[in-house]
UniProtKB/TrEMBL annotation, chain A:
Residues 1-12 have a biased composition (Polar residues). Keywords: Cell membrane, Membrane, Transmembrane, Transmembrane helix, Transport. GO terms for cellular component: plasma membrane. Coiled coil: none annotated. The keyword Transmembrane applies. Gene3D superfamilies: MetI-like. It is found in: Cell membrane. This is Cellobiose ABC transporter membrane protein. InterPro entries: MetI-like, MetI-like_sf. It comes from Geodermatophilus amargosae. Belongs to the binding-protein-dependent transport system permease family.
From TrEMBL, chain B:
Belongs to the binding-protein-dependent transport system permease family. It comes from Geodermatophilus normandii. InterPro entries: ABC_transporter_permease, MetI-like, MetI-like_sf. Residues 1-29 are annotated as: Disordered. It is found in: Cell membrane. Its main location: membrane. The lineage of its organism: Bacteria, Bacillati, Actinomycetota, Actinomycetes, Geodermatophilales. This is Sugar ABC transporter permease. Residues 15-25 have a biased composition (Pro residues).
Automatic annotation (TrEMBL), chain C:
One of its GO terms (molecular function) is ATP binding. GO terms for biological process: carbohydrate transport. One of its GO terms (cellular component) is ATP-binding cassette (ABC) transporter complex, substrate-binding subunit-containing. This is Multiple sugar transport system ATP-binding protein. InterPro entries: AAA+_ATPase, ABC_transporter-like_ATP-bd, ABC_transporter-like_CS, ABC_transpr_MalK-like, ABC_transpr_MalK/UgpC-like, Mo/tungstate-bd_C_term_dom, NA-bd_OB-fold, OB_MalK-like. Keywords: ATP-binding, Nucleotide-binding, Sugar transport, Transport. It comes from the Bacteria. SUPFAM superfamilies: MOP-like, P-loop containing nucleoside triphosphate hydrolases. Pfam families: ABC_tran, OB_MalK. Residues 4-236 form the ABC transporter domain.
């Protein structure tokens, strides 16, 4: 009865915005409006700027300096690319570096995900004395610059005679405050207390609960953390160039050493950069969607 | 029902709900929630943390109070705050601090502003949205070393594509590397290139979490798209924006790889006249070129203090603003 | 099969100023269906969780059968629990969910299979054994949670608001199914709900809790007929019982200028200290009286439900300036003869349907 009276009024107020028709999916969170042409132009430009330097690496890797400076500049790579890649591999042990990077990044990833899941679960769901203070310590660690640790670490690995050994890179990098925090945030939301209680009533031991209930629930976040950790470890630069030399380098160390000759040949440097970056880029193109999803998911949780 | 307490304070406090009646004696029981397991779960992380983070942090503090040479660590000599006072009188430190600040501002402010804009664009209904997102994240997947080497080529004086293009439209070639502003600008471009897409995705995720009916309500209230962005999107994104600012700041203070490799021909300590030497680079130079560990340690602690001050400043600002809004 | 005994069981959360469960004494018979009911925060879930071993017992004890289980971990109590949100393991199939406890207990594989199949048959889940919880409807998930409890063949079933996530229609259906199933299996069951209709329809006995204290534990009929205090009176029954307080006068209590008759003995005992008396009468035990008789009320809203009509009316303030304020009264009447809004109706309470309470202690006076 009362609604009848207000109905015409409502129609009027709706009429204004409806004049510019939009499609909207009501139930979805967030604003969903179709993009205009300008949006596509701007996004296209951004995508171009994002990808172009990587493409340019391939072009520059196949040209001499003089060719690169020509007008108009070249925009397609040519067959010299492979020659230059060969030269780069001679000048720097890039093959070894890729193998090393795979080993180092894989170890760091497995270790970090494991430690982070264990600790993240404890911080999210277990009550123990001092858990708040310990978590604050973890979060605080994220603010500490890498620089603060490297001198003693260097002294340590020098004493252990680990310079140029891969464990010198792996072990210190396993400490990931971000990983612990990330898993904690995920598990405190995704793992209901009831599920743990159900497992207790079902008679599962704490360890059994962890493997049979917590890990399966945590798996999506573990995958995201693994991807991010691998990427970070692969690209890590500061500590590896201190702990390793070009005798047994990771990719980043090898790349840093590439330009060290007296007359730097840009094409060779670019060729080295290209093959050092290619493995990650291939993985990235294949798993891009998942990585994007993971970063966005992590952003909301964090 | 209620037993009056002798202490009037307790009696007053307990007045509305009846005070707990004296039940049977309370026994102390073995706690059923197995909380001691918590320590076992966090142990692997904290063992590593103690060995490779906490111990080094403290050791760095100790070193920063000593005169230590890399070649003779046992021969350390206590100098008190000498390394710190020396640092404050060191023009290289102030130069590096200035450079770090300039590059930090140049790389963080435009980066986050662009990321916000891009996130807004990505939030429209798009064809091929995955393509744009993945493309935008490619720089993030590129390592600092690779990115810097490529950009060093692009910014090269004689053969760089950027100078070639500048010349083509009638400008002079720019010697990016040797100028103070130009080199710092170029380094900021590298940082911005690598991180804009990543931050855009973080903003996008936060935007998608804003309930759609908020926009519908704003539309009914007659807000234009721009007004919706200002009055709905930005306020909802405030915590995320603060988060990215903090993360970018921490990264900016530690900036190291980009200036190290920017000359394009091996490692430098920040240009011929240190025109782009950052604090991270200075610290590396002190420790691994000059083998002066005490100085390097003091610089590292100074960097940490700068981060603490800046992040603390943000937190204060955010709190004050939040209070003002209330 | 077993009895369950709460013996002065108390739970005090750290830093809380009063116990969440306070000296709970409760005897649950073998095979009995006992419902714990009360408003949120009354301690009903905590009581159940103390019995499950998920919550510590700070004082007193709990026994299952003759065994004191106060310190036993959940797995040693021979209980099974149905959780409010079902707590199904998301990565396991229905079959694996139901068999998980048996698998941990080391039961042989074919025995597990047999028992899961049996439970699935009872619960009509046979077609869904290989699905994951995500692919099930709410009602099916609820049944899987039930199945997980049944498979274990425990001494006691614990159910924590198992129907609260179902829509209204399904809830009514499932409610009867659970009650029937429990009677068939004859397993001692403790069931927690905040819904008094659920409590009344399902329980052999119902225990009403408030602020951690047991108010009354009795059969549904007895709770309705003889509530022990005004809280139980107001909590059990829908719409709630009308409870009003007024000055005691000769022969009854004065309300809105009229006198509602109260038996002399009860009146004397209830009004002994204060000269006032609290009375309760259910909407369904009111009838209209001719003008001049009964208590006058003014009708504010009329709710037509088809089978019944409810009048929401105001009991006027007492005319000689007594402290009595106006009170809202709900009346059930015949839909056809319902009064109109604004009309004054005179009410009287059917014989033997008036509840009398002490205005200070709020306890029933008999």
């Amino acid at each position: 009865m009362t609604t009848l009276a207000s109905a015409p009024q409502e129609t009027v107020s709706v009429a204004g915005p409806v004049a510019t028709p939009r499609r909207r999916r009501g139930r979805r969170a967030g604003k969903v409006t179709a993009a205009g042409p300008l949006t596509y132009v701007l996004l296209g430009l951004t995508a171009l700027v994002s990808v172009f330097p990587l493409y340019w690496t391939a072009v520059a890797a196949s040209k001499t300096n003089a060719e690169l400076a020509g007008t108009p500049p070249p925009f397609l790579p040519d067959a010299d690319l492979f020659t230059n890649i060969g030269r780069a591999m001679e000048e720097a042990p890039i093959g070894l570096a890729i193998v090393n990077s795979v080993v180092v990044s894989s170890c760091i990833t497995v270790g970090t995900v494991l430690c982070s899941t264990l600790a993240g679960f404890a911080f999210a769901k277990l009550r123990f004395r001092g858990n708040g203070a310990l978590l604050a310590l973890v979060v605080g660690t994220m603010m500490v610059p890498t620089q603060l640790a490297i001198i003693p670490l260097f002294i340590l690995i020098a004493e252990l005679q680990w310079v140029d050994h891969l464990q010198a890179v792996v072990l210190p990098t396993l400490v990931s405050a971000f990983g612990v925090f990330f898993m904690r945030q995920f598990l405190s939301q995704a793992l209901p207390d009831e599920l743990l209680e159900a497992a207790r009533v079902d008679g599962a031991s704490t360890l059994r609960t962890f493997w049979s209930v917590v890990v399966p629930v945590a798996r999506p976040a573990m995958a995201v953390l693994a991807m991010l950790t691998f990427l970070t470890a692969w690209n890590d630069f500061f500590w590896p160039i201190i702990a390793l030399t070009t005798d047994n380098p990771t990719v980043q160390v090898a790349l840093a050493g590439l330009g060290g000759g007296y007359v730097p040949d840009t094409a060779v440097i670019m060729a080295g950069t290209l093959i050092g970056t290619l493995p990650v880029l291939v993985v990235f193109v294949v798993l891009g969607k998942q990585i994007v999803g993971g970063i966005m998911q992590g952003a909301v949780k964090g | 029902m209620t037993i009056a307490s002798d202490d009037p304070r307790v009696a007053a406090a307990a007045a509305p709900p009846p005070a707990p009646p004296p039940g049977p004696p309370v026994r102390r029981r073995r706690r059923l929630t197995r909380n001691r397991w918590g320590y076992a779960y966090v142990a692997p992380f904290f063992v590593l943390f103690a060995c490779f983070s906490l111990y080094p942090f403290l050791y760095t503090a100790w070193i920063s109070l000593h005169e230590v040479r890399l070649s003779d660590i046992d021969g350390a000599e206590f100098v008190g705050l000498g390394n710190y006072t020396a640092l404050l009188q060191n023009e290289f430190f102030w130069n590096a601090a200035r450079n770090t600040l300039t590059i930090g501002v140049l790389s963080t402010v435009p980066q986050l502003a662009m990321a916000l804009g891009l996130a807004h664009l990505l939030n429209y209904k798009l064809r091929g949205r995955t393509f744009y997102r993945v493309a935008m994240l490619m720089p993030y997947a590129t390592s600092i070393a690779a990115a810097t080497l490529v950009f060093a080529q692009l910014f090269g004086h004689d053969y760089g594509l950027i100078n070639t293009l500048l010349e083509a439209v009638g400008f002079d070639r720019v010697d990016w590397e040797s100028g103070t502003w130009t080199s710092q600008f170029a380094i900021s471009v590298i940082v911005t290139w690598r991180w804009t897409g990543y931050n855009a995705l973080i903003y996008l995720a936060a935007m998608q979490a804003i309930p759609g009916d908020l926009y519908e309500a704003a539309t009914l209230d007659g807000a234009s798209r721009w007004q919706q962005f200002l009055h709905v999107t930005i306020p909802a994104l405030k915590p995320t924006i603060l988060f990215t600012i903090v993360v970018s700041t921490i990264g900016a203070v530690q900036l190291f790889g980009e200036p190290l490799l920017f000359s394009g021909n091996g490692m430098t300590s920040g240009g011929v006249s240190n025109q782009y030497q950052t604090l991270g680079l200075l610290m590396y130079d002190q420790g691994w070129t000059n083998f002066h560990l005490g100085q390097a340690a003091a610089t590292a602690w100074a960097m940490f203090l700068i981060i603490l001050v800046v992040v603390g400043g943000y937190a204060l600002l955010a709190r004050r603003r939040a209070r003002a809004e209330r | 099969m077993a009895t369950v005994t709460f013996d002065s069981a108390t739970r005090m959360y750290p830093k809380a100023d009063r116990p969440a469960v306070d000296n709970l004494d409760l005897e649950i018979g073998d095979g009995e269906f006992l419902v714990l009911v009360g408003p949120s925060g009354c301690g009903k879930s905590t009581s159940l969780r103390m019995l499950a071993g998920l919550e510590e017992i700070d004082a007193g004890s709990i026994r299952i059968g003759d065994r004191d289980v106060s310190d036993a971990p959940p797995k040693d109590r021979d209980i099974a629990m149905v959780f409010q949100n079902y707590a199904l393991y998301p990565h396991m199939t229905v079959e694996q969910n139901m068999g998980f406890a048996l698998k941990i207990a080391g039961v042989a594989k074919d025995e597990i299979g047999r028992r899961v199949a049996e439970a699935a048959k009872i619960l009509d889940l046979e077609d869904y054994l290989l699905r994951r919880p995500k692919a099930l409807s709410g009602g099916q998930r609820q049944r899987v949670a039930m199945g997980r409890a049944i498979v274990r063949n425990p001494q006691v079933f614990l159910m924590d608001e198992p129907l609260s996530n179902l829509d209204a229609k399904l809830r009514v259906q499932t409610r009867t199914q659970i009650a029937a199933l429990q009677r068939r299996l004859a397993v001692t069951t403790v069931y927690v709900t905040h819904d008094q209709v659920e409590a009344m329809t399902m329980g052999d006995r119902v225990a009403v809790l408030r602020d951690g204290v047991l108010q009354q534990c009795d059969t549904p009929g007895a709770l309705y007929e003889r509530p022990a205090n005004t809280f139980v009176a107001g909590f059990i029954g829908s719409p709630a019982m009308n409870v009003v307080t007024g000055p005691a006068v000769d022969g009854g209590v004065r309300l809105a200028g009229a006198v509602l008759p109260v038996p002399r003995e009860k009146l004397a005992r209830a009004a002994a200290g204060t000269g006032r008396v609290t009375v309760g009468f259910r909407p369904e035990s009111l009838e209209t009286a001719p003008p001049g008789e009964g208590v006058p009320v003014v009708v504010n809203v009329v709710e037509q439900l088809g089978s019944d009509a409810f009048l929401y009316a105001t009991l006027g303030a007492d005319d000689d300036g007594d402290v009595l304020h106006t009170a809202d009264v709900v009346v059930r009447t015949e839909p056809r003869t319902a009064a109109a809004v604004g009309e004054t109706v005179h009410l009287r309470v059917r014989e033997d349907c008036l509840h009398v309470f002490d205005p200070v202690t709020q306890l029933r006076v008999d």
